[in-house]
User: Fold these one by one.
Assistant:
Number 1:
Amino acid sequence: MIGLQYTLFQGFAHLSAGLTSGMGALAAGICIGIVGDHGVRAYAQQSRLFVGMLLILIFGEALALYGLIVGLIIATKNPPNGCTFTGPSPPNI
């Protein structure tokens, strides 16, 4: 692994990309769970609500896709000039 440097910027970029994707998926899951629960109960009373419920579920799933896209953009971002700190250097013996 000589010549490969994993910079501090790349580490924080990958951390934030993972957090962004995870939080987007969590928000989508919560949205789909709540809408699905109430939608099924409403569909049992009126069957014409199915299409509206399905559209709301699709828009809830879009939250996860937006989080994934933003995470990919963050993970592939190049560090700005002068940001090459890789951590403490080993002592010279």
Note: The helical segments are 8-45, 50-75.
Number 2:
Amino acid sequence: MSRFLTHCCALGVFAALGIFLVSCQKGNHVELPEQELQLDEFSGEIVEDQQHAAGVILERFVNAPKVGDLAPETRFFDPETVEEVELSALLGGKPVVLVFGSWSCTTTSLYTEEYADLYSRFSDVADFYFVYLREAHPKGGYMPALAYDMAKVKIPEISDPQGLEGRCKLADEFGKKKDLPMRFLVDSMDDMAAILWAAWPARLYVIGGDGRVLYSGGQGPWYYKLTKENWHTPPPIPIEKALNSVPYAKISLEEFLESLPQ
């Protein structure tokens, strides 16, 4: 009887260990540091003009997590349920690709076909998420003449939603309209994800299963490099000097994904 009980206890330990390992693989035990950054003067504000847009970028660009950093715990929202989703819950398995942007961002809308292509080629080795941010060029706000990009993509006039449900609805509509296969997440109305990741108006990151940043893309739109062919006009010199003081990936997201074990 004693030997039987010992055997049963051993089986119980192995079973518990198995459950623990499975839960770790699902991302339930990845701990990320709580955010230390606070809201800034641009939080929750519609982007009104060029000066406002430059202010947002120059205020936040130093926040960008670098390769090797632990990703900051970030709280998103599911656009279908409007329920909170923590970044840590998405980690623990394959690397996680975060694509930050919005419908009115020409950089984002210009590359919807490329997003779908990268997903189809690399979804076996990475999990893809599109994080929907505050509108880059909202109706009644900052709507510059972007002839180069606009010649290639038609963007409807989009008002910046005033509430979370409106942003969630817009994110869901954008994903379905553009047939984007990845899961969508939504930033809070105070733009905390955009602050933590220096992600507005567009940016790309990859986070490893252990929560560390593997790929830290450049500040969009100027250094946004989704594929090998991507190229953008450099920013004005004062902004260029500032942005280049923070390290970022010089290769494209496509090239990085190609380097992962297939």
Note: Confidence is low (pLDDT under 50) at residues 1-27.
Number 3:
Amino acid sequence: MLNWKDSSESSWQKNGERKRFANPTPVPFIEIRMSDVKTRDAKTKDVTVAESTLNWSNHRIRWTIGRLFNHLFRVAEVSVAQKVFRNLPSPCLTTRNLFGYRMHLDLSRSLSQQLLYLMGERHITERALINEHVKPGMSVVDVGANIGYHVLMFAQRIGGSGRITAIEPSPENLTELKANISGNTLKNVDLYEIAVGSRETTVEVRGGINSGIQTEGQGIAAVDMKPLSEVVREKCDFIKIDVDGYEAEVVEGAFDVLRRDRPVLLLELHPHLLPRFGSNVQTVVARLREIYNHIEGYDQFRAKEDSVIRRVLRRYAVPDKLRAIDELDSVIELADADQHNWTFWIIARNV
């Protein structure tokens, strides 16, 4: 297991030798203060404390108004975020409550962090599925832990008697992820700073919040990869996989642990990205059906398909933004025929 406190390099044992590779050292995660925000006069280029303090206060006021507006009206979240978070300094580090913990966010990185700050738990599309299947005391594996919002959700669900294995290869995401683990004193989380796939090798990852495996020579960092079955040695009860098109490779490398433990599997499928890695949805689902006798599909409600009343009720009265797919095999065929290009989720389990 890798120690998440080691930010400059990652390693693991192989045949008695210790293999190492360098990663870019993440920026220390320190919450920004009023005096840290610097604004420059267009003519003089001078920075003053008064200007900095005023600028930071204006940011805070705008953020507060944005969160209140979003909570009350719950519409046009992207448009609201773009207006509320314009002209941010970089980095712009702050926290908000999420699942009873403090979520550390760099608001300057992407729209995802901004929407998490505005919407909180409502931004996590699949939260109702997780609530249904993750129980106290469980051992959970989070493949593609990103910046840690699922880790915090899992921690709330499993309590102190459970355990979380978090896997995230992106150096850019690791700064926030580590802050969310250490800042909330989550001692039952094991963090592996690696990628997982079907074999042991070195791969490149792309930059950005939705990091993933990249074509050689186009990534921001080289990271080690190994099969999930070699990482997860102890029994696990629930596995979440979100790897932006690399699903087939990850499932193949996880096959032994899936067959051994029969954990509930939450898999996010990206039909438009799978072909980049020589696979498709049918291949992934067929492999899972060798182990699981019950596979359910879910996709996101689409506003244009519903009446105004249903859209309002969903925003205020219904905690889940996902709906069950009635004809999963038909959707799989459409996805592989390039006629269903949006992301959807499957729950694989034995009943």
Note: The chain has two domains: 61-121, 123-349.
